[in-house]
Structures
1.
Amino acid sequence: MRVSVVGAGLGGLALAQGLRGAGIEAEVFERDPGIVARFQGYRLVLDPIGFQAVRDCIPPRWHPLLDEIVMPASAEQLILDPQLNEIGKLGAGRTGIVVDRQVLRHLLLTGLTVHSDAMLTGYDVLSDGNVTARFAGRGPATADLLVGADGVNSAVREALSPQTTPTDTGVRFVIGRTPLTDEFASLSKAFGCKIAGDGVSLLLGAMRFRTPPKQAAEQLAPEVTLPDIGDYVRWAMILPPNGSLHDLTAQDAVLSRMEGWNPALRALIEQADPDNSTLLSIRVVKPGERWAPGPVTLLGDAIHATSPTGGNGANTALRDADLLRRCLAEANEGRQDLLTAVDDYERQMFEYGTEAVRSSLEKLPAFAPEAKLS
C-alpha cells in the first residue's frame, strides 16, 4: 500500500510515522518552501489520548526520548487581574503533558520522505481506484490513498468537500514566546491562568524541558536531530473581535493594551522574540455531510479545526493519525479492504471531531464574549 499525505503538520507527520512503522509506504507533501519556513514552536498540552497517539505512531525506541522532552501540566485555571490578584476561576484544573510543537515536529520528521514546495493543485481518481495528486512545480504522485492533512485552508478539502468551509469567529489573538529567566519567576502563579484586562485576555504557559531537546536526542536517539532551545514562556493575548491593530507590530499590539499592568507582565512581552510573535485569527471548520466514499480523506484541521481555547486541536489531529494508522494497517494486512478501512476511520473521526469543535466553541466566550459562533 502507498499513501500520499498532504501537509507536514503534527497530524500528517504522525500518520506518516505510524504508517512507516506498519510497513506502509508514505510520502508527505508540504506546500511551504521549506520544512522550517514558518515558525511552529509554541507550547501545547496533550491530553492522555493525544499523547498516547504520538507514542503509538512513533518507533518504541524513541519513547525514552519523548518522555525526556515533555513535562507534566497542572494548572488551577484561575482568573487574575492585571496586577495578578485572583478575581475568579475558569473551572476545573487542567492536567496533561506539555510539549513544544517545534520539537515534536522535528521528532516526527525523522526518517520520513517529505517534499517541500509542493502545492496541491488537484487530484484525479483513476479507473483502477488509485488517486493521482497534482502539484504546482513538481510531478504528480499516485497512491492508493490521498490524505489531506493540510490545515484550515486545505486544498484537498476544497476539492473533496467544497461545501465544507472555514468559519471566522472574528476573534484575533497575538501569540509569542519569551525565554524563561529568573526575572519572570514571580509570574509562575499566572502560568495556566487567564489574566483579564480591559476587553482582552492574556494567557501564559511555561515550557520547561527535563533535558534540553538537542542534548536529549544526542544521548537517547542519535539518529534524531532536535532544535537547540531552552525553557520559555508562551504567551497569547486574545483581542476583541475585529479590533483594529492600527498597523502595529504583534508585540506593540499587545503592549498597547497593557497600560498600567504588572511591570513583569509588560517586561515579558517586551523581551519576546519578535520573529516568534505573530497575529492569528480564530477560524473553525465544522464537519458537515460525509463525502462520497473513495481513496481520498481528511485529517486534523482540514476537517475539524477548533478554537485554541478548547485546547483540543492538536490532540484531535493526533487521534486522527493514530486511528487512520490502525485502520490502514488492517487493510494492509488483508483484514478488510481499503475503502472499508477509510469508511471506518471517517465514521469515528466525524463523531469525535464534531464534538471537539463544539466543545472548543463552547469555551471561547469565556475569553472573547463577542465572538461569532454561528
2.
Amino acid sequence: MNDPAMLQMASKIARRYVAGHTMRDALLLLEDNILRSHLSSIEFVGESVRKQTIAVEATNEILRLIKGIPAHATDTTISLDLSHIGLLVSPELALNHGLKIAQAARNAGSYMMVSAEGSNRTDSVLDTWERISDEFPETGITLQARLYRTPDDLHRVLGRPGPVRIVKGAFLETNEIAASRELTALGNTFRQSVSELVHAGHRVNIATHDPQLLEQLRADLGVALYQDHVEFEMLQGLGTELLDQLRADGLKTREYIVYGPDWWLYVLNRIAEQPEQRVFTAISDLEALGVLG
C-alpha cells in the first residue's frame, strides 16, 4: 500500500469487490442495484478496531450513511462488524454505538444487520446483538454454517424476530471448531439451517455465491423460497449474473455493497476464500484494464 505502483494495481483489483472510498461511491452503486431490481445492504468497511476514537469515527460515518440513503431506497439495510464500532475496546462501547445506529436505521425505515466475525468473538457478538435487539428487535444477525456450534446458535437466535443471514463462513478456524469450506457436510449444514428458518417462517438471508448449493436449495425448498421472508444475498462482484438470474426467476434478492478507505484487507479476504480461482480473476481484471500486458 505504500508503493504507488502496487497501490494502483491493488485499486484496480478492488474495483470488482468495493464500490469505492466514499459514501457517494456506495450510493451510486445502490442506484444501479435499484435499476437491476435488487435490494441492497451497505457496509462502511472495517473491523478489529482497538481505539475508541476510531470506533467513534466509524459510528459517525455509519450514521451519516443512513442519513444519505435516498427516500426511495429505505429498504436498504446497514451491515457492520461490531468490532468496527468498538467491540474489542469494550462491549459497552459497541452496545452504545450499536443502539445509536439501530435507532437511526429504524428512523430511516430500515434496520441494522450484524455481521459474523471469527469464532473467538462469536459469543461476544451474539451477546451484544441480543442486547441491541432487546430494544430494536428488527436487528439482524449473521451465522456461519461451517462452525460446529451454529445449530445451537440458530436455536438461540430463532427466539428473536430479526432476520438471520446464513453464510458459509470464511475465517481461519481449526478443524475442532469448524468444517472445511470444501466438505459436503458444510453444504448440508447450510441447507439444514436455511430449511429450518424457511419452514419456521423466520426472515432469512441466504448468503452464498455457490451455484451448486443454490441449485440444491431450490430443489429442497421449491416454492417456499418465493415467500416474502426469504432473500438471496450476494457480495458485490461475486455473484452478479447469478443474482440477476435469481431475480429474473422472481426471487427476492439483495446485493451487499462495501465502501471506505480500509478496503484492502476486505479484498484479500475475498480472494482468500477461493484463491485458486480469484487470483486468476484479479490478473484478468488487471489485463482488461490495461495494467498488465
